[in-house]
Amino acid sequence: MTKIVGTLGPKSRSVEVISSCLKAGMSVARIDFSWGDSDYHQETLENLKLAVKSTKKLCAVMLDTVGPELQVVNKSERTISLEADAFVVLTPDQDQEASSQLLPINFDGLAKAVKPGDTIFIGQYLFTGSETTSVWLEVSELKGEDVVCMIKNSATLAGSLFTLHISQIRVELPTLTDADKEAISTWGVRNNIDFLSLSFTRHAEDVRQAREFLSKLGDLQQTQIFAKIENIEGLNHFDEILQEADGIILSRGNLGIDLPPEKVFLFQKAAVYKCNMAGKPAVVTRVVDSMTDNLRPTRAEATDVANAVLDGSDAILLGAETLRGLYPVETISIVGRICAEAEKVYNQDLYFKKTVKYVGEPMTHLEAIASSAVRAAIKVKASVIIVFTSSGRAARLIAKYRPMMPVLSVVIPRLKTNQLRWSFTGAFEARQSLIVRGLFPMLADPRHPAESTSATNESVLKVALEHGKASGIVKSHDRVVICQKVGDSSVVKIIELED
């Protein structure tokens, strides 16, 4: 029921590996623009489309922006060794060669942003401050635009790009950079992306600006924005960001540096709870780091994945593990198995009562229907809930109550025209439910438009039940709860299947 977002990259971009990832349980493909150019990502995406065709498994696409990310520029790609207790200078002069004494960075306001005693982390991809591939620096003095730092741990930096993170300091850079806008308006538009992951979201205003930008780009006004919370500023404005965004990604890599380690779990639990009550997807990252190089996760990581599910997360996001990890397919399948195990002991009853209490009375019309459908399904021990929806909203509301049985969201296409041509909507809505826990979309036949009679509803239901039977969730004599609109009213009905 819990969804898996996989990041596609060097180790996971061939058609066969992507096909195996889809079969193992990946339902959203994340394309990270922090590295690689549009052509590279386009190739990956074309391979994804072929894999979707051959496996017949739907997959959504998420574009992850770079955001105000500070980077050390190592043009020669020479390995840099840093020794504990030595000093290194960070300079905005990017023409300089990176070395053990000098690291050029892509930001000229560092000296204004930091003061002696501040902490800076540098590493490839992300860093915990404990690996030998990332280094922890303390600012010792400022010389003009240069920042002199003392090295706190010996480390070896390898590769062309290292991320730089200053603990608890605001960097005066826009959340959507020009490079991000360029990527979205060319690559994003061309590929009709389903989700935009907004890196380093710090305020609700960041989300509003991104939405305004998307709304000018034709079809992308339907793209959902997931705010990535990765620093203390995003935490402080969490409630208002949650109101604006369509979902939240808890980026525990950077957060773990901005927050003391003992506070991370508390924030995670509180944030996931708030997302659950708002009925918006919560995605947790950095769960099985060790599987980047190993075939098995540590026990702590396995427990961490299970706890994320028990806390109520909708999806687990894999970054380096699938991007450059040696075992992308195994990672997805192990994480999926842990999630399934945790779901068996998830206290659905308590969660349902908590959600109903939180929503309060009087409920809105839709909320009342959604909670009633779930309650009915629990009482009659239904094997599946089938929802007919055109916007996907009704299905998401039902999933908000976390029923124990899968929710089959039958998206009924709508016909629309822009005076020049007719087109069907529905594919976007179907793919966007691929990040919601327990929600499984299928696209109905466009010959049965949304505003239809009960006769066509019957034929669509038949197709949905056949789909359920083929995927093994419905069998003879099962009970099924159906939520649909008949005329102007919403109806919840229970049917018992014959042979």
TrEMBL record:
Its cofactor is K(+). Keywords: ATP-binding, Glycolysis, Kinase, Magnesium, Metal-binding, Nucleotide-binding, Potassium, Pyruvate, Transferase. GO terms for cellular component: cytosol. The keyword Calcium does not apply. It holds the Pfam family PK_C. It catalyses: pyruvate + ATP = phosphoenolpyruvate + ADP + H(+). One of its GO terms (molecular function) is potassium ion binding. It comes from the Eukaryota. InterPro entries: Pyr_Knase (IPR001697), Pyrv/PenolPyrv_kinase-like_dom (IPR015813), Pyrv_kinase-like_dom_sf (IPR040442), Pyrv_Knase-like_insert_dom_sf (IPR011037), Pyrv_Knase_brl (IPR015793), Pyrv_Knase_C (IPR015795), Pyrv_Knase_C_sf (IPR036918), Pyrv_Knase_insert_dom_sf (IPR015806). Belongs to the pyruvate kinase family. This is Pyruvate kinase. It comes from Acorus calamus (Sweet flag).
